[in-house]
Amino acid sequence: MTETAVSVPFAAIVTTPSHASPVRPDVNLGPIVAAGLLVALGTIYLGREISAGQALLFLVGVFAGGVLYHAAFGFTSSWRSFITAGRGAGLRAQMLMLALTCAVFFPLLGRGQIFGQAVRGSVSPLGVSVVAGAFLFGIGMQLGGGCASGTLYTAGGGNTRMVLTLIAFIAGSVIGTAHMPWWAATPAARPISLITTFGVWTALAVSGALFASITIVTVVIERRRHGGAIGVLTNGASRWLRGPWPLAAGAVSLALVNIATLVLAGRPWGVTSAFALCGAKALAALGGDVATWPYWSTAAQAASLRAPIATDVTSVMDVGIILGALGAAGLAGRFAPAWRVSPQSAAAAIFGGLLLGYGARIAYGCNIGAYFSGIASGSLHGWLWLVAAFIGNIAGTRLRPVFGLSR
Predict the structure, then answer these.
(1) Coil, helix or strand at residue 377
(2) Where does the pLDDT of residue 7 fall: very low under 50, low under 70, confident under 90, or very high at 90 and above?
(3) Cα 162 from Cα 3, distance rounded (Å)
(4) Alpha carbon distance 231, 219 (integer Å)
(5) What is the pLDDT of residues 273-332, one digit of tens each?
(6) FRET label pair with 377: which of 30, 177, 199, 271, CA 20 to 30 Å apart?
């Protein structure tokens, strides 16, 4: 989630998105019209030039952007709230999101197909690169001010500081691809899938027990520190087009986003591979010999580098997230970019963005591709990513005052 300028109680954070200024009775027509027009044109173009499925995935991304904005569903502020204040509503919402997604993913992945289309999970090796990358990503979350999805939706919602983070995120991703052969040679265990190892229902029971355990731990810690725990339905609102939404609504909606992605694309939701691809294309356009790098010389990556960006599912969905957040900000009457960013804050955004991009690439994904989709796929690397990234968030939280950011 995006940074706040002042320190407020967590109760206020869960009732009003941290990117929000006081709600005004009007809406911002400019962003609504712009987002609506671009979404319409993008859908038509993708449907005609690429495929109906690609157009639908674009709309899934648009929906995700609106959800992320209206529910203020980020990972960065939720983790920092737990680390610094013992408030765990955000973490509990994430466990709900994971539980719902796993309940659908595991049976589908166990069957290996849906409606005749093959489906596969995001299962990656466990090794040094995952630990190092997730740890760096965790630091980057707190300095950059957002995760992968958080950077996209806050930038789309008008946060100019997050545009700096996004640019640095892309640059860090490209640097990560340059170093990937070295990281791939570090010690690693083979990919392990709970579904393949234990079967669908045992894997689901084990995962459910872990989700429940984390939920219980957050409740116990919050009650000890504050005398009670905030529910994920606390920040409810009756205005669904303008927000804010309850965290639970965000959890359910993002579970639907990942499920829809699996059904339409045949694999789970991801975000950051598009950053590496777009950055590599830009560098190649400037004369960089990216195609000769080992990472981009494999058949699949070389094909992606040559193909139009509109053919890449992740890139199309990322653009959709930005446009969805732009429209949501307009509906909420909160699209008001502040163009002045302090030097310290800009430095934190750039440094954090570089860590985010680099960490995501060497860790086989970000908070969406590795944590959310990895755990939802039954991959142990998703759980390893979670632990390492959480430790990185602790370190990043302690580093925030160095850059003039509140803890």
Answers:
(1) coil
(2) very low
(3) 9
(4) 10
(5) 999 999 999 999 999 999 999 999 999 999 999 999 999 999 999 999 999 999 999 998
(6) 177
Confidence of residue 232 (pLDDT cuts 50, 70, 90): confident
Query: pLDDT tens digit string along 98-152?
Result: 999 999 999 999 999 998 889 999 999 999 999 999 999 999 999 999 999 999 9
At residue 234, the pLDDT reads: 61
What number of residues does the chain have? 407
Degrees to nearest 5, angle at CA 197 with 377 and 128: 65
Task: Give the number of other Cβ atoms within 10 Å of residue 220's Cβ.
Answer: 13
Query: Mind giving me the DSSP string for 6-69?
Result: S---HHHHHHS-TTPPPP-SS--HHHHHHHHHHHHHHHHHHHHHT-HHHHHHHHHHHHHHHHHH
Is the four-CA dihedral 17, 19, 24, 30 of positive or negative sign?
negative
- CB proximity list for 232: less than 8 A, separation 6 or greater: 89, 92, 93, 96, 246, 247, 248, 251
